[in-house]
User: Fold these one by one.
Assistant:
Number 1:
Amino acid sequence: MITGRGNNSETGIAVVREAAIRVFHELQRKGVVEGFAEHTPGSFVVTVAPISAMVEGTKRRPEPDAAPAPAATPTLAALGAETRQALRVLAERSLDALGVRERGPFVESEMLRLFGVLAPSVGSAAERESQLRMAIERAMAELD
């Protein structure tokens, strides 16, 4: 049983009551709650669904398609030294712009994050690395 009318709330509106109703509807949709009703102003009576109904509900749901395999963890090893160095400078500037004082432990992860942001914007042609360096230069210009 949940009780409370909201008499002590700032606006006098029962915030918990509305939130509880939303939760009850969601639980009813999922088959966890069989029903609910307002018993008195500020209280609800909730009827929990039997376990068999929940089990039947999960059996009726179609099997989801197999989830795609997770993407491989990005690595910077395939990039040339010049591109990695430009990405490092961009990462350091980005961390400086964020106000990170001790940036050393965060540079590598910031490089990977920026690579993940910039890589989709370049094509898959043979010039990909030079296009990535140009994207890095544009990003550095935006930070300046």
Number 2:
Amino acid sequence: MILGIEIGGTKLQLGIAPSDSDSKTLVTLERATIDRALGAEGILQQIKEIAPSLISIHRVRQIGIGFGGPVDGAHNRVITSHQVHGWDDVPLGDWCLRELGLPVTMGNDCNVAALAEAVHGAGEGAGRVFYVTIGTGIGGGLVVDGRIDGESCPAIAEIGHLRPGLDARDPQQTVESFASGLGIESRARDLLASGREVSGVDELRTLDPLSAETVIQAALAGNAASLEIFDQATLTLGWAIAQVLTIAAPQRVVIGGGVSLVGEPLFQRLRETVGTFVFPPLANDFELVPASLGEETVVVGAVELARTHGVPSVA
């Protein structure tokens, strides 16, 4: 068996799947909420409390990890986390070997989610799959013929960190800052703080809570102020996807993450925007589809990453 672990900014998931199977089905899955105030040490303690019994019961022989931040996969080290303190240059693979007694293969969580969707999910059957997750932030991953492209790099396919336009010279001016869940919420707060007279702004003030979800719901209900924010988000993300298509020519673009649950209104806008900006010869050469594996995506991908690499040497 393989133990797949997802280490995120808000949740920790540990799942078990067979090592000699191409199935996406997990035998069991354990979830825990992360207390960010406790930092990396708190998460490691949670893993120590949950993992040993899973390892013993299911005779686990290796571990795959999808980590929420840049990693050095070649040396199984975490580079950093942008959500939880204490993860700077952490040799997580060595820790697992020492504390859990098993070798590890690890990757960035979005890259392993891309692998899961490409091999077992909405990208199955396509040779080149680009995965985008739209949640608190925006991440991306490119899978070519069942392998993560550039998995030895500290970061790759980071669509959320593209700068939308030549005037975006501030590192904080990114696709993510416009189109992520947090970005949509921030744009709404900025609009309210600006005092700018926009139709529907008074209704925007009444949203409780003021969040990406409530702003998008208001937009789809016809609120003009919310619709302006939502349209800017989809325009920015659609432009970014078009750049990826033009450079990497994936046959399928898979969209996941919490914001993607908006459904067809989001996908319709993205398809229109991508069509506007993509290199014309590629305009009819791709599909843009929703992800299919749900909240288990990163764990399934972590297991698949371990399967792909085989049992690492512990010498």
Number 3:
Amino acid sequence: MIVDKFNRVHDYLRISLTDNCDLRCFYCMPEEDYQFTPNQQLMQADEIEAIAKAYVQEGVKKIRLTGGEPLVRKDFADILRRLGKLNVEITMTTNGTRLHEFVEVIKNSGIKSLNISLDTLQKDRFILMTKRDKQEQVMRNIQLMLDNDINVKVNVVAMKGVNDEEIIDFVKWTKDTPVHIRFIEFMPFDRNKWNSDKVITLQQILDKVSTQFEIEPLSRLPHETAKKFKVPGHAGTFAVISTMSAPFCGDCNRIRLTADGKMKNCLFSQSETDILGAYRKGEDIKPLIYQNISEKKEALGGQFTIDMEKIETTALHNRTMISIGG
């Protein structure tokens, strides 16, 4: 087992397949002319399989594919097929724009649940936030996944003055549609224009929803990042990922691999370990995995606290969100 000094067992690996994406969300990708990682610097399909296998041998039970947008990888189907041989739970986070091209691939892989990022239900606002006209395609693909018995969690980065007026609309969506909305508190990353005034906290979201709905809290499973709720009688649920106001670091079980093969023990960690470089040199990567986890901080990468007013974004050392992989 991969255990840190706080006795947290790490059995959930998130693998970014690419830092490329077909959308341009400002909180994730800081510039339109973002310089993507050259292909030769990315983990290749066989390398992803071998490196993931090493983690599985040490106790990883779940793998999530992320990006950028994982479905822009031309070899996505091959990667999914390779990982499917590892006999662990496989899932994915996607922006949903290309899911209609991969329905059979996803079904045949055994994926039972997907996270789909969608920050607005309004077409015009979607174009403003992503610089692309693909909102209707995403909505069709969400329904397509539901029609194919795939569980859908919708990730909504909630931001004051941007999409906070839609919180009620997202909850209304769960009345007749079995989607699981997950509001995510706006988090600071390199050059994403974060400030505390844009953050809508867990309590503020609950207060807003409570003005129109009765809310029933749902039990939290171990390692879950989302605090879950349900409106009685609704087909779906909603939740809040309260990274900024009420972190869930105490039982964190996550390991991250960036698309260029760097291991991060926390979304906010400053340090990285070059797993891909070591693998390409023929080195044993398992000692590096354990060393990286042994250095994990107790909370939030050791970079800040929940006192958001004291966060100095210029003092944070991290990548952009798109280059981490979420």
Number 4:
Amino acid sequence: MSKKEKNLTPVSSGAKKVTTHVLQEMKLKGEKIAMLTAYDYSTAKIVDSAGIDVILVGDSASNVMAGHETTLPITLDQMIYHAASVIRGIESSLVVVDLPFGAYQGNSKEALSSAIRIMKESGAHAVKLEGGREILESVDRILSAGIPVMGHLGLTPQSIYKFGTYVVRAREEEEAVRLKEDALLLQESGCFAVVLEKIPAQLASEVAASTSIPMIGIGAGSGVDGQVLVIHDMLGINQDFHPRFLRRYHNLAEEITGAVQGYIHDVKAVDFPNEREQY
């Protein structure tokens, strides 16, 4: 274990509760925001105790938990199940839940109903929606009910069939201008933060500098107010995803494989359980 690793200790119980107001203060002070996904109680408990600021119950659960090719198949009921599991494991982190595909697009009344279900049935703290000006009516209606909203611009995975690819967005001037305008529109509508996914670093820096709410990047460089990664990617559980922006902090797939193989060996060799491991 390195010296750096030895100094990384879990945050003690009773750590300050992270709220949308705390995130706003962090932006004002220039303190970066750390955000990770989680989809279950046990992972959320670990991530929260480590001191993460924000936990995103992402629709990426469709990929990493259910094995779907896209985020589109996951349902509102499934998102509520994952969110409720996460909420039971946290003490201080702010928990944001993705509204899944089909739960808000084109129908602001349905958007509000979906958001209310997430808040009431899971106990989550906020919801996240993908898109800019085209979803403002839904954002306004959700905010009118007192539910905090996080936006999401750039690469929006729920629109994968519209884009046809997961390449970097907003490289062209027209799309970059639209993204800047949408970030300001989401801010003016009352969103407390926005995720910027897979856009040029310079553009992301400009957006972060021109807005008063936190901009959280994923594949958007270091000039934003915080970062988010999918925990299965960051821990090396998912071995099939290799974007430039991903830094793997561990290789759990390799460690788990080794542990399982050791267990198989010990069972077959009648080494497990030994005398100390039985009654």
